[in-house]
Amino acid sequence: MNPRLQRIGIVLAVVVLVYGLAGFLIAPVLVRSALQRSVDSTLVTHASFARVRVNPFTLAVTVEGLRIPDEHGTPAAGFDRLSLRFDPLRSLWQRAWTLAELRLERPFVSLAILPDRTLSLVRLLRPRPASVDTAGSPPTFQIGRLRVSGGALTYSDRSRQPSFETRLRPIEFDLVDFGTVRGSRNAYSFEASTAASESLFWSGRFTLAPFRSEGELRIADVRARTLADLLGPQTPFAISRGTFTLRSRYRVDARVVPAEIGLTALAFEARDPALVDRESGEEVLSAATLTTQEGALDLERPALDLGRVAAHDPRILLWMRPDGHLSLEHWAAPSAGDTSRPMVTSIARAHVDGLAFEFQDRRLEPSARFRIRSGSADVESLSTAPGRSFHFALACSLGVAGHASASGLVSPAAPSADLALEVHGFDLRDLQPYVQAFARLDITRGAVDGKGRLAFNTFGAKGPLVRFTGDVSSSDFLSVDHKVGKEFLAWKRLDLNGLAYDALPGRLALREVVATKPFLRAIVAPDRTTNIQALQVPPDSVPAAFRPAPGTPDTMPARIDLVRVLDGSMYFADLTLTPNFATGIRSLDGTIRDLSSAQAAHADVELEGKVDAYAPAKIAGTLNPLNGRGLTDLNVSFKNIELTTFSPYSGKFMGYRIEKGKLDLDLKYRIQNRQLDATNRIFMRQLTLGGKVASPDATRLPVRFAVALLKDRDGNIDLNLPVKGNLDDPSFSVVPIIMKLLVGLVTKAVASPFKLLGAVFGRDDQESPAVHFAFGSAQVDSTDAHALQAVRKGLADRPALRLEIADPGTAAGDSVALLTRRYAAVLRGAAAAAATATPAQIEAARALAPAGFGAGEWVGMLTSAYAGKVGKPPATTARSPRKGQAPDSAAVSAETARLRLMDAQLRARVTVDPIELHGLSRRRSRAVMDVILADSTIAAERVFITGARDSALVDSLGVRLELTLSE
């Protein structure tokens, strides 16, 4: 061997040996020391290395067991092994630092957001001096292959309560041809998974100068708990269950300003997802599956296109809170201080099947519930951009047996909607909670069909919030009141044709209402309250949300062009009676035209029906029931009602059953501005009372007599009872007032029957008529004869009445009158004395002569009668005065005494027979009877003379003879 070559070989071997020894033994120490100094100068904690190895022949460096502790000594970051292998040839050729391979095994990072919202790893870095300039271009380098395997990431957020923590492992990352040199592929793939088998896959390629990247991102099988912890408690909802997968292609391009960042081919899948409202703790949204495909996200605009969306078996719960707000309103409330542009969301097409939706109105107790089942919905071209509308279609089952469909345009940005609706078989029992809030009424059956158009907030600033136009009908409706447990209101069918309803502000218009076989039951319960009274819930018991606000108008503007009633009926029963009273109106037909809430509007009413099948009933006139202060002017007529129907009432309150009779009613009611002015004409034909009934409520009035008193000659009773009052007065009620008037009329009739007769025939006597006779006379004067003629006419018109004429008896004045009359007859029967009376006699007779006699005449008649009855007249002692002179007082006084003595003695000879006095009393009664019986239509059997009184009634007019009516 050539010694020179040998020396060269030995030198090379020594060099290699030294190089190898330096690389294997010295280099690791130097590398470790340099790494330690670098780490210590960067971190505030002391990092440790388990081992550093260098292979000088492969230009590989291996660092093992790096541990970086936090301030508490807990490992915050590190790895088990880092392997670097340099490629010097490519470094020289590409003029860049080149690693043929970088491999990181089992790296771990514990990353936390601390309570002060700083990053935990940042706290481990030493602060840099402000003078250090870190600006400049990044170094040129190239990595042939970068591989991370078995990595782990622990992330926690301690800035919120409760804190959030998650762990990703193992993390696998593979990067090929990575570098800052132009033309570098920079292809990479990243994989990670959690203990819950959640996985993250990220692959693609990028360039750094300028930065541009595109690739694929997939997050699969993310559990609900992970998302819930990640979102934290700040969201109004919590994800209670579900598994979620997201796939997308992404693109980042910094070549333009601003940089383009977006996702394409976006797809999302949720299996068995469910959201819980944090405020209530209730599950409000869930589905079997929810998927999106062909979506895209543009952060610059910003815009989210979900592409095609499909949901299978979604479940939605929504409710109205007691304060009048929807349960999910707070979900859509914007975050405080958020000034970013809103995201425009769009969906090209969406399909939902198996939809179940429940709405609850919790303003009521119990809550009202409305359910949609088996729903199928389709949406096309949805966008939340201003001015954009999308087409919406829904078909579903409604309640228990109904179904509904809706289709039309919806604008979510406004928001507004214009939908065609169709409903069949909606169960009215679902409205029970609303009915119960205002009335103690149970809906036991009934269904609603409807077809029309529903528009929401599409009318501008002055229009209503909601408008419905179309036709609605209800069939087979029945409701039961709580009081007596029997049907209250029912109908075979109710059609609302041409319905137009606005809400906020409210307005109602109807072209036609057709009620087929409507029925109403009115019952007086045993406690004397009506079922209608019992139905009403007191205003202070109505749920607060449904009480009208102060200043709210009494009535909503409303108009109904035509109401038609076909074969209607009504039932009335009074359970306070034994036996119970019951009657009804049937076959009620007719129309009500032009109903309106306008105060000046008048509706024309024409209704006809029957009471108990044979008694026609008619209601005609004008009314305004849609306005509480409008005009009502109605005539209500009932003809030929069987009075025997009311026998339970007559037995209870009159004490007699009704044997027969017919009733006609003509009622005229006028109401304006809540003021009632009514007349009630009651006409009873051939009312005949039957047997007596023992009733504690029966009146003590002579009922039979009252009936006989009120009947006319044809056996009819015709009464007119006016009623006036204010309907707003709580104490005012029409029926009690009519009953009070009727009872008052009967009471007055019984107490003053002749006053009733006088009022009927043109008189207004305040007392029962009586005939006055002058003392000693049985002659009826003309005034009393007129009163007797009114009584005679009343008797003629009331055949059931009888008249009793009281024998008045005699009074002391009768004897005096008869004696005076007899005395005058004795005087007139005697011839006057032939001698002429002296002046003294004439002067004395002026004060003593009875009425009807002259002074001189009386002196002569007294003198003659005295001589015939008593004897010779006493002689005069008075001297005659001189001719031409007046008699002196002594002469007059003497003659006065003499004439008075003669008058007294003559009167003592005149007597009255008692039989004559008794005959006078009987003649008076007969005289009255003769006047009454002068009407040949009055049978003598109806007029009675009662026994004489013990003492006659006398007054200033003489002897009073009283009349009494009886049945």
Keywords:
36-stranded mixed β-sheet; five-stranded mixed β-sheet; 16 helices; 22% helix; rod-shaped
Largest sheet composition: 36 strands, mixed
Shape: rod-shaped
**Average pLDDT:** 80
Number of strands: 41
* Gap from first CA to last CA: 175 Å
Portion in strands: 35-45%
Provide the low-confidence segments as ranges: 131-136, 759-766
Classification by helices and strands: alpha+beta
- Radius of gyration using CA atoms only: 60 Å
Number of helices: 16
- Helical content stands at 10-25%
Molecular structure report:
- This protein has 16 helices and 41 strands.
- The radius of gyration is 60 Å and the shape is rod-shaped.
- It has a 36-stranded mixed sheet that branches. Strands 37, 38, 39, 40 and 41 form a five-stranded mixed sheet that branches.
- Helix 14 packs across helix 15.
- It has 967 residues and is an alpha+beta fold.
- A hairpin with a 6-residue loop joins strand 30 (581-596) and strand 31.
- Among the domains are: 1-81, no CATH class; 415-538 and 555-609, no CATH class; 631-751, no CATH class; 770-812 and 916-966, OmpA-like domain (60s Ribosomal Protein L30, Chain: A, 2-Layer Sandwich); 820-914, no CATH class.
- 22% of the residues lie in helices and 44% in strands.
- The model is unreliable at 131-136 and 759-766 (pLDDT under 50).
